[in-house]
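Per your request, structure below.
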């Protein structure tokens, strides 16, 4: 990319009143982290947001109130931006056609497991997240965790080239939110039994609370005194479903009233004040901001995410018995090994820093491919 070029970049986000907020989904945070790295790239003049809510464009003042980035209207974006990156949303087809026709470049950044989500939507006749639909993407960007399972699906349904880009995360948003709530985001050692949290989004079988609940139940059956309580986020609505009630009623931890089901709740409102450890399970979606948040605070993370390396406490996929043993082992050793645990986490999280040279160079390479030097 030419050093003299001044790219004006827009990140498209759903900024409507009904869209997930900063802590209900990952799109807004992902948009901030992407802007942080893009603004460090050579040749980038600005990075703003624009509304990509389905249907009518959100009022600019309302959209600005919901966006962590400066917001421009679609009209201004059409006139002034060189590149637009859709972040987990979709701009109107006629608008993207006009933007492409005038020479603008459109990229989709996918931040979830599209194949699983869309397959489930097709099976139950629900709207798909993004596809299939006509589009004008120059490229599609995916995080490493989603490349193997979703890369081919994204390519063949859009005919756009799919590129793996580094995941990004910074503690800045978490620390600010925790500070505003008067929360000290730090694991406090010393308890002989743990209060457990499960914070899966429960919007797909790829990331749900079912296996973590079985894991916790297996641990409780082995060692009841080890589990004080279990908080399950984003699950209250599921209690209205007969099948889910049958499932949870089969668990000892539920029958013994150890479990509470909540609406969507951010990690900083749960870990520390209501829970010591985070229990997670993902199926082909092994990158999660909840993981990074827990590791940053030194909280025990019981997980099955291979991309976390030796961070946290990893158990075998779909094996609640192994997960139970992993949880109980963590309870026995975490406090004694806390310093080493924090060091490992810090090294991993440093690799995700949007300000790191490696991250900046990777995104500069993508921009150079989209806008070759003259």
């Amino acid at each position: 990319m030419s050093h003299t070029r001044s790219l004006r970049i827009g990140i498209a986000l759903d900024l409507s009143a009904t869209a997930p907020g900063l802590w209900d989904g990952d799109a807004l945070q992902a948009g901030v982290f992407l802007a942080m790295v893009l603004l460090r790239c050579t040749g980038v003049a600005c990075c703003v947001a624009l509304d990509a809510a389905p249907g009518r464009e959100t009022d600019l003042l309302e959209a600005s109130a919901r966006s962590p980035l400066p917001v421009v209207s679609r009209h201004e974006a059409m006139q002034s931006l060189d590149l637009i990156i859709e972040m987990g949303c979709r701009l109107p087809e006629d608008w993207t056609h006009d933007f492409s026709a005038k020479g603008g470049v459109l990229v989709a950044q996918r931040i979830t497991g599209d194949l699983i989500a869309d397959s489930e939507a097709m099976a139950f006749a629900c709207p798909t997240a993004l596809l299939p639909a006509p589009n004008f993407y120059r490229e599609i960007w995916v995080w490493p965790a989603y490349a193997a399972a979703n890369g081919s699906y994204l390519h063949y349904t859009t005919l756009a080239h799919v590129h793996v880009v580094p995941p990004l995360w910074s503690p800045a948003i978490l620390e600010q939110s925790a500070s505003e709530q008067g929360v000290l985001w730090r694991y406090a050692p010393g308890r002989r039994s743990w209060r457990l949290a499960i914070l899966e989004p429960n919007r797909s079988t790829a990331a749900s609370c079912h296996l973590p609940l079985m894991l916790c139940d297996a641990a409780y059956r082995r060692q009841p005194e080890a589990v004080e309580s279990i908080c399950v986020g984003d699950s209250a609505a599921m209690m209205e479903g007969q099948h889910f009630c049958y499932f949870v009623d089969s668990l000892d931890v539920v029958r013994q009233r150890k479990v509470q089901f909540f609406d969507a709740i951010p990690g900083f409102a749960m870990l520390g004040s209501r829970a010591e450890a985070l229990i997670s399970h993902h199926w082909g979606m092994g990158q999660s901001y909840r993981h990074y948040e827990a590791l940053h605070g030194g909280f025990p993370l019981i997980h099955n995410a291979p991309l976390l390396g030796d961070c946290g406490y990893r158990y075998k996929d779909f094996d609640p018995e192994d997960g139970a043993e992993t949880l109980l082992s963590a309870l026995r050793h975490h406090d004694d090994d806390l310093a080493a645990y924090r060091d490992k986490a810090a090294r991993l999280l440093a690799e995700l820093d949007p300000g790191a040279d490696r991250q900046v160079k990777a995104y500069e390479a993508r921009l150079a491919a989209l806008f070759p030097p003259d």
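The radius of gyration is 21 Å.

Regards,
D.
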